Amino acid sequence: MDTIFNSKQEFIEEYREAVRELSGKKFEITSDIDRFNALAGLIASKARSVSARTDDRFKKEGKKRVYYFSIEFLIGRLLDNYLINFGIRDMVDEALREMGCNLDDLCRMEPDAALGNGGLGRLAACFLDSMAHEDIAGYGNGMRYRYGLFKQEIVDGRQVEVADEWLSRGYPWEVRRPDKAVRIGFGGHVVGHTEGDRIFYSVEGTEDVLAVPYDIPVVGFGGKTVNKLRVWSAEPIDEHFDLEAFNRGEYAMADASRADAEAISAILYPNDAGEHGRLLRLKQEYLFVAAGIRTALDVFRREHGAKWELLPDYVAIHTNDTHPAMCGPELMRILMDEEKLTWEEAWDIVTKTISYTNHTILPEALEKWPIATFSKLLPRIYDIIDEINRRWRDSFDTSQEGWQERLRKTSVLWDGEVRMANLSVICSHSVNGVAKIHTDILKRSVLNDFYALTPEKFNNKTNGITPRRFLAEANPSYSKLITEAIGPKWMDDADELKKLVEFEKDPSFLVRVGDSKRQNKVRLARYVRRETGLVIDPDSIFDVQVKRFHAYKRQLMNIMKVMDLYNRLLDDSSFSIQPTTFIFSGKAASSYTFAKEVIRLINSVADVVNNDSRVNDLMKVCFIPNFRVSNAQLIYPAAEISEQISTAGKEASGTSNMKLMMNGAITLGTMDGANIEIAQLAGEENEKIFGLTTPEVEELRASGNYFAWDVVNADRDRLGRVMSELTDNTFAGLSGNFDSIHNEVMSNNDYDLVLKDFRSYVDAWEELTSSYADTRDWNRRALHNTAMSGWFSSDRTIREYRDEIWHA
Ligand code: 6GP
Description:
Blueprint: H1 8-23, H2 32-61, E1 65-69, H3 79-85, H4 89-98, H5 103-107, H6 119-133, E2 137-143, E3 151-155, E4 158-162, E5 175-176, E6 182-186, E7 189-195, E8 198-204, E9 207-219, E10 226-236, H7 243-247, H8 251-254, H9 256-263, H10 279-304, H11 311-314, E11 315-320, H12 327-338, H13 343-353, E12 354-357, E13 368-370, H14 371-377, H15 379-394, H16 403-410, E14 413-414, E15 417-419, H17 420-427, E16 430-433, H18 436-446, H19 448-453, E17 458-460, H20 467-473, H21 476-486, H22 507-532, E18 541-546, H23 555-571, E19 580-585, H24 593-609, E20 619-624, H25 629-638, E21 641-644, H26 656-662, E22 666-669, H27 675-682, E23 688-689, H28 694-703, H29 708-714, H30 716-725, H31 739-747, H32 754-770, H33 775-787, H34 794-806
Parallel strand pairs: 1-2, 1-11, 2-10, 11-12, 12-16, 16-17, 18-19, 18-21, 19-20, 21-22, 22-23
Antiparallel strand pairs: 3-4, 5-9, 6-9, 7-8, 9-10, 13-15, 14-15
Helix pairs in contact: 1-2, 1-4, 3-20, 6-34, 12-13, 12-15, 14-15, 22-25, 22-33, 23-24, 23-30, 23-32, 29-30
Bound molecules: N-[methoxy(oxo)acetyl]-beta-D-glucopyranosylamine.
């Protein structure tokens, strides 16, 4: 472990000085926000000097550089994480206490940078952590949104979206690099210039904006490697400020070009899937792609000169989903139009450099853009895509049967649209899914025509999570216990967690596992009380489903289970349950009506159940508003049941399932996404699996023999009753009934199979919770889950990317 302070005393002196420099005041009279900004600023400046050293070392070693292109990086707060990764958390904690302040309070001052929606964005952030830990020269390339993902408030049970002004109190981690700004052209027309026997193209008459980078350090655990996340902000090119308009009092008009340019990086689109057709989104995609490619090529040229044929040996460009799909055509454009390579030379380089990860099979998430919009905004990029598509078509062996159908499915241009997933596959040497079953589904169905043509491109990389943030930082009491048992190496190598298996036989250790869980439940209960006023009982089971709201994730099925249990408790005096707190948290895309109605239903059920003294000692329903990285870190450690209940075949991987497992929660789940690998590793006897499997779902759909009404009618007393309660005022007190949900489910013949899986789900829940009374065995299973979770470290995932895709 390299250290950035030689002693506590040295830290205290430097920190005092930093506070004074920033605020002009003596430490004792400064506010927490000044203290936070000074502390983060000090750590950031140390991180930048290590970063400079890291960079020199990489240069000397001739390391291959990996650029991870992602339109989202859901990094959350950094201070605590970086103190842990530098190995100075305890020292700083102690020093601050001596100085009369509290580290946790300062950490809470940090804005929770929400530059992402959910799974895809958080995965990118975990990957940055692991790339630095694995000493890979890995750089994030993304967008600096002025407003992060909206804040969620709950009013009368409804989600209300509020702008997230995360930059309003400054952001001490970033450094603006105007010297590295890149001019980005939109619109205009393509002009050809003849030089000898070749024609070269340029675009004239573009409207340009400036992409200005901000660098955020990425501190790897151990403190030896510090990489960078570079995020781009859009600004006007010159100060087109119209002084005359200003003097006339037309202030908005005077600064119109600034507003137009800045709009590009103003907001993060709040959909985790399926936001297309918006011009501004397309501008975002091109801006961070073109600017990021420029950075990568500048660095390469500095180190290796213009020997472009060496690019694939020294640069890997990874595209996180299809949002950076223009990396291929943009790199082609520069290599041909500026560096004068031929198409064939450039194409060879491009396809050896770029790789692609798919994150979802939902058809609405496979990005498509209208050709008319696309070609107008990016005429040269469009021409290149057109040529890629033409050559793709020409490569087809028309003597093979079925080639027309295959061409239709794999074309980039079809039906007046640009299909970004097909572009991504064609431009890449590697295509991967994010869990075994997901990759199989890509091969077998979503991308099966590509798989038939180039099976060697396809590979699986099961997702992972960083144990530094999601165990060491989020769960200090458990981490301490683990370290006492097996030593601290697990933070470096999560496989070490396996050594915990031995302790499953140690009753006193299991008691301490339970104690730590209880501490975390108390901590969460305090947070819930502070945020919502609701009192929850830390001695009840904490049953947790936290993630984006989406029909296929079936939060609806979960709350219907709660309604069913409530009905039975009221009706049947012989029926009882293990006392449980049903915890939900998550956001819905602002335009996703159904998902928002489910949020309203959960809050409406909570309103009834939590105010009914007949059941309150047995159940409470708790919706935690504004799910984000910081409160997720309080929720995972407190969870005992991990609800992973998506319709089989729909969740590509899931990552909250891994975070919850690592924190000792038992999975109640379907055989979907990474749940399958979790069950394999931990053993099905240590989880609770239920519901239709993927083949069963596919068979049922194909049979045409599924009728939702039959399922409801066959279970009138329970399921039928729950369905009626959506519309009969039982839960209408807060803000009305739920005809919307009833209609959506019935009119789509239960598309997500909520009704179909309902009974097996409730039965599974009852079986699982009835085993809670055996505290010792529950704690053993919890510990076993932690012990077997090491494989889900993103360090393992990243090593696989490094060895099998990036060859870095
Ligand atoms: C998500 C998937 O839904 C989730 O299953 C997976 O764990 C996660 O990506 C990370 O791979 N997908 C997205 O967030 C998304 O926006 C376009 O897909």
